[in-house]
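Sequence, please.
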């Protein structure tokens, strides 16, 4: 496992992408074992970081009479302060332990009975790529 520093906005993006129809389809593709393992091993770590983010977001929203689903302050004079706090939270960096794979693992996709990856698939997997070798 490698500790990666990610902004909370990236964590939200990862889970949003993996929760989308295409993201779920990606998880059902025939992928290289190393990549599939890394994905399955790492998603719970990202989800744990997301839970901490969501708890903080909920606290911020409650102070302004808003909800995480609708980030609008009850008192419009406080809207700018609410947005500033949410933006700061999204830009906060978090250490997340992920199981990474070398970029070459992606090259095997589409060969030997494995499903090919689309550009969007690769975009959803960027966080699993070992950048130490790049």
């Amino acid at each position: 496992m490698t500790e990666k520093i990610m902004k909370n906005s990236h964590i939200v993006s990862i889970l949003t992408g993996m929760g989308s129809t295409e993201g779920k389809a990606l998880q059902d593709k025939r992928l290289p074992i190393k990549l599939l393992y890394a994905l399955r091993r790492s998603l719970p770590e990202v989800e744990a970081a997301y839970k901490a983010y969501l708890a903080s977001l909920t606290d911020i929203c409650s102070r302004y009479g808003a909800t995480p689903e609708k980030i609008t302050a009850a008192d419009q004079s406080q809207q700018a302060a609410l947005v500033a706090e949410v933006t700061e939270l999204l830009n906060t960096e978090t250490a997340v332990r992920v199981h990474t794979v070398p970029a070459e693992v992606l090259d095997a996709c589409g060969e030997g009975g494995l499903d090919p990856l689309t550009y969007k698939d690769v975009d959803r997997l960027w966080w699993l790529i070992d950048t130490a070798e790049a």
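The first strand starts at residue 2 and ends at 7.
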